[in-house]
């Protein structure tokens, strides 16, 4: 049975940031990384670009073998967690081996959430969460003439655009009343929808699939209103769910995700969690939320790594702030923070119909920014998130800020960022 000081389960952003944080304080303690993936580390966010051909699969890896050698890390692919025995500081892996650890980080990410549609197990469909998924989808897109995408989140919309550009007839089916409902408001969503319609895609919002069955084309979909659709390529992009099956019987408390405190500690001794599998405190509500975005995964991974190594410079996690960017048909959209106007707060919007530039900024009663959203509007999402987290009063600069959030945001941070 293998023994290690630091065991990290998972290999994407949270895991890699934890390695960096551990090595900043502990240069020698043995680190073992186990992952269900077959490859070197990569980001799920790059997969749409693998599908489109913009990113070559061989060039997407975040770290190479030399990185693990230099940092004295044992990297074990195809070794996902099978079971966690927190009471005795050990795990069972999918390859049949076991590892005893002193400190464990669960950074196991998420998997596609497959909706319980009757007949879904009788048809072939694609998902997009791993590199293998992306390679299979890229091959299928080249052959598709009639595609249906279930779900209008960012994964589904990226894939739909690739299908449109490949010449397929594309229908997007979404249960919500608008596209990208988890990211953008109705104005922004309508702009995104119009871009897709102009490119030839069909959009069916407020629609629910009630049955799937095999057909000559590949799959037949029946909607709640009786409409039927045929697809030679079906992509299911209806969200993700954290990978937590290995927790059964572990005693680690979990809800939507693995529950953690502000140092990413779980309810079990010597066990931390970070990234898409962790449910941590939200910045706006104080309640524990899922915030499965890349920037938060790196922050959580850093906090967890510092906590595991006992780094005295550790600061508590400030809370999750949503941040999403989306590029579509040569345009871009970005959302940072909360879309809810706080009591006594104010929402400021501007829209230039000629240029298609749209901006919405939300301010708390004390003048602090709580959310900013734009289409074809240029600002730095990371800077905006810091303005929110640092609760900087923008009242004296509000007019200038709304007119040019990119320049004014950077100006503020150059003066206050320490």
Strand fraction equals: 25-35%
Distance between the termini: 45 Å
Instruction: Name the poorly predicted regions.
Output: none
- Summing up helix and strand content along with how strands pair, one would put the structural category as alpha/beta
How many strands?
24
The gross shape turns out to be globular
Note the main sheet: 7 strands, mixed
The average pLDDT value, as a whole number, equals 96
Helix content: 25-40%
Radius of gyration: 22 Å
**What is the count of helical runs?**
10
Any overview of this molecule?
- With 418 residues, this protein is of the alpha/beta class.
- Helices cover 25% and strands 28% of the residues.
- The chain has ten helices and 24 strands.
- The strands form six sheets. Strands 1, 2, 3, 4, 5, 6 and 17 form a seven-stranded mixed sheet that branches. A five-stranded antiparallel sheet has the order 20-21-24-23-22, sandwiched between helices. A four-stranded parallel sheet has the order 10-9-8-14, with helices on one face.
- Helix 8 crosses helix 10.
- It is globular, with a radius of gyration of 22 Å.
- The chain starts with a strand and ends with a helix.
- The mean pLDDT is 96.
């Amino acid at each position: 049975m293998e023994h290690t000081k630091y065991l990290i389960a998972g290999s994407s952003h949270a895991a890699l940031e934890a390695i960096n944080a551990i090595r900043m304080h502990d240069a020698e303690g043995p680190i073992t990384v186990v992952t269900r993936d077959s490859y070197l580390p990569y980001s799920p966010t790059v997969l749409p670009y693998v599908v489109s051909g913009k990113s070559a699969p061989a060039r997407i890896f975040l770290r190479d073998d030399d990185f693990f050698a230099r940092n004295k890390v044992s990297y074990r692919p195809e070794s996902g967690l099978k079971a966690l025995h927190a009471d005795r500081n050990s795990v069972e892996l999918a390859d049949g081996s076991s590892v005893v650890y002193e400190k464990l980080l669960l950074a196991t990410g998420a998997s596609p959430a497959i909706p319980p549609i009757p007949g879904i197990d009788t048809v072939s469909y694609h998902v997009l969460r791993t590199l293998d998924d992306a390679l299979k989808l890229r091959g299928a897109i080249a052959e598709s003439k009639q595609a249906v995408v279930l779900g209008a989140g960012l994964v589904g919309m990226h894939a739909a655009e690739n299908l449109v550009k490949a010449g397929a007839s594309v229908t997007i089916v979404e249960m919500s009343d608008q596209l990208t409902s988890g990211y953008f408001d109705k104005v922004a969503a309508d702009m995104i929808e119009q871009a897709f319609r102009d490119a030839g895609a069909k959009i069916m919002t407020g629609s629910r699939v009630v049955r799937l069955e095999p057909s000559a084309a590949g799959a037949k979909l029946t909607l709640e209103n009786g409409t039927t659709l045929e697809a030679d390529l079906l992509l299911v992009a209806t969200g993700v769910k954290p990978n937590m099956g290995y927790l059964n019987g572990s005693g680690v408390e979990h809800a939507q995700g693995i529950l953690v405190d502000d140092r990413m500690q779980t309810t079990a001794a010597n066990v931390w969690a970070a990234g898409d599998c962790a449910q941590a405190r939200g910045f706006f509500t104080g309640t524990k939320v899922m915030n499965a975005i890349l920037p938060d995964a790196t922050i959580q991974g850093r906090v967890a790594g510092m906590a595991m190594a006992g780094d005295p410079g550790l600061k508590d996690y400030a809370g999750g702030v949503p941040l999403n960017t989306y590029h579509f048909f040569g345009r871009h959209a970005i959302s940072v923070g909360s879309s809810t106007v706080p009591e006594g707060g104010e929402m400021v919007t501007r829209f230039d119909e000629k240029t298609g530039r749209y901006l919405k900024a939300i301010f708390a009663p004390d003048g602090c920014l709580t959310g900013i959203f734009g289409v074809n509007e240029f600002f730095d999402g990371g800077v905006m998130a810091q303005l929110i987290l640092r609760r900087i009063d923008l009242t004296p600069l509000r007019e200038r800020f709304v007119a040019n959030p990119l320049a004014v945001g950077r100006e503020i941070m150059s003066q206050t960022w320490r």
